[in-house]
Structure formats: C-alpha cells, structure tokens
C-alpha cells in the first residue's frame, strides 16, 4: 500500500516526519505530490497537508510554516487541549481533521529544536527537564508524538476502511551503565590507600572494615553484582545491553584502568553473552578524539566492533554530541533521557533518526529513547522503592499502549543492598515481573 500525500511544498523537515510516521506507524510507502492535479489523479488513501481541503475524501492536516523554514528559529508555543491530548501550533480550518499542525508538533519534539535555542544549563552544562516544553506543559510522562501519530492512523482508517496496517509490537530493552565494576578490588595501591585514609578520617568505620575484608578476600566486592544480574537475565529471559566506561581517570570518570587484566577478563567474558556499547567518559563529551580512543579500547579488548553508545551523566548537547558520535562511527545512541526526571525527552517511545537542524538533514544516527533511570528515581526524584515501582508501572503501561520501546537504565552499583539503595533490587525485579506478565498476556498491550 502507498499513501498519496499532497503538500504545497517539499522540504527536508517534512520528508523527515513523513518517513518517521510511515516507517513506525503506517508501515507503508508514500508518494509526496506538490501538484494538485497529480494528487487528484493519484490513488487512495489520501492525506492533504496544506491550508485548504482538496478532496472530499481525504485526511486533511492544516499546515503552518515550521516545516518550510530552513533556519533555527524560536517558534511560539501556545498549548491547548484537543481530543484529550496536549496540542500546539494551532492552525484553524473549518474542514480540517485536526485544529493544529500535527506534523509541525511532531517535528518540534523529535528534532529537539528547543535544545538548540538559548537555555539555562545545569551544573554539568546540560539542558534540564524543567527547560522543556514537555515538562512545562505537563506531558513529559507521555509519548505525545506517538499518541498523535495513532490519532492520525485512526483518522486514516476511518476515512479509508480498506486500509490494512500491520500490528506494531511492544519491546522491552533493559540496559546497564558500568561506571565502576569494583568498589575496592583491582585498583592500584595509591587509589586503595586514598580510599582507606578517606574512610578513616571521615569516621566511616563500617566502610573501612568492609574495605579491609574485601581486600583480604573474606568478602566479595559489593559493586561486583554481575552474577546476580546474570541470574535475573536467565530467569526472565531478557537480553540487556551493557555500556562500559573506559575513559581515563578524572573527576567524574573513576572506573578501573583498562590496562587491568581483571577488567579485561570481565569485559571479554560478558561480551560472549551480551551486546555491548561504549559509555563515553565525561571528559570525552567535549573531546572527539578521546571518544575514538575509548571506543577503540573496548573494540581491541573484546575483538568486536562497537556501534552503540550512551553518554556518561547523560551529557547531551546539540548538535556537538551527536556529530562526535557519527565521526566515531557510532550508529545508535541511548542517551535520550533526562537525569532528573523519567519520561520521554523527545516525546516518543519509538527509535528515530537524529535530524541535524543546522545542516537541515536526517542523519544516520538512530536514537533509542530512554524512559527510566534508577538514579533518576532514587536520587533526583527522591522516591521510595514502593513509589518508584508505581512510577515504573505507569510508564510501562503508557509505553505498551503505543506499542513502543520501554528502554531502562540501571547501574550494577544500584543492586548493592545497603544505605540509600536498600530495597531497590526488588524494584528492578518487580519491573521485570511486570514485563513478563505483559508477554504472557499480550492483550494487556
């Protein structure tokens, strides 16, 4: 099946959105006409994206100017409610099927246009959730792009009952960031002594005792939770992705040295069972050459090509971060989430290709949205384990409804059952149980 689409103009922005919708939601090809006569002679189903209706039987979306533009301009965002959802870019037309430019709304959110505009950065120079339209208009918890795409699908089906579309499938994608594989073991004597003296002077005698027991071989290292994680994967039949930090030591980069044979052995062993990605260091976010060095380190150790990444501290700055990834031959990035809030940073639960606004072209970098991070729930939002479980269930239910990808981020250090993380193993296990319920009862999706 091919969709016949009319627009008074053609642009890279319009093509980008049409490609996304047709690939992710309609699973069909389309033909874009800029001639009214050719459009009228084409075959149904018809979709008109202009300022006036052309055919009596067509889906009509009124257009504004955003997708015509070739400059990064700050649009006026005035939100309103329509059909139970937030909308903006109101474009009134008495015969339109939507009272706003649906494609412009989706492009604005997917392209992250607002992150190219001036904003107040946080302490790590990141664009914060509170700066976003989604947060301000209270739809960060919703994949608004997907929900409106499904409304469009419903409208097309209503006008063209013969339209046959394949079913989309929900996907669960658990991922891990490994910032520190060990808490005490396999560090050089200088680092061990430094930690020892720090615990001593701060009066952390419980940690001091633990440090000594682990070093003496009487207790396992608390951060080395990989056996526990392996058992979960086997029990729930999941295949997670691991993102490893291989940067040089710095203020925010404190993993084991990549020259350490124990670390290399761990990487090789885990790579035999799981898919890997690079976790570019904090320092590499502003140094493209460091990113390449770290990626090459991982590839040399495990003997495999690395094409996935997620930024340390979720440091994401447009367009620099993604251009650096492309220069390092990264094909997929998993950073698209906020550290301080859970939800949908790009307002979608579907993977999508990054659109480079400065170049006005779709890139080859696929972005996999991040829905939930453990540190967001526990540290930034300050939730209890019980409260976190409820938040996870809500987002999981929402993602199921749009048949999206539910991508989660956990750390091996979050499975340490002590102090602030006590009870959080159960949070993760409950989430996996909920996913299994969904698999066994597909009607829930």
How do the strands and helices of this protein lay out in sequence?
Blueprint: E1 2-7, H1 12-26, E2 29-33, H2 36-41, E3 46-50, E4 59-62, E5 80-82, E6 85-87, H3 102-110, H4 133-136, H5 144-159, E7 171-178, H6 189-202, H7 205-216, H8 226-236, E8 241-244, H9 261-271, E9 275-278, H10 288-302, E10 308-309, H11 320-327, E11 332-333, E12 352-356, E13 361-367, E14 372-373, H12 374-380, H13 385-401, E15 405-411, H14 424-440
Parallel strand pairs: 1-2, 1-3, 3-4, 7-8, 7-15, 8-9, 10-11, 11-13, 14-15
Antiparallel strand pairs: 5-6, 12-13
Helix pairs in contact: 1-3, 3-5, 6-7, 13-14
Fill in the keyword field for this structure.
alpha/beta; 36% helix; five-stranded parallel sheet; 445 residues; elongated; disordered C terminus; TIM Barrel
Please tell me about this protein's structure.
The protein has 445 residues and is an alpha/beta fold. The protein contains 14 helices and 15 strands. It has two domains: 2-159, no CATH class; 171-183 and 222-444, Glycoside hydrolase/deacetylase (TIM Barrel). The chain has a five-stranded parallel sheet. A four-stranded parallel sheet has the order 2-1-3-4. Helix 6 (189-202) packs antiparallel against helix 7. The model is unreliable at 441-445 (pLDDT under 50).
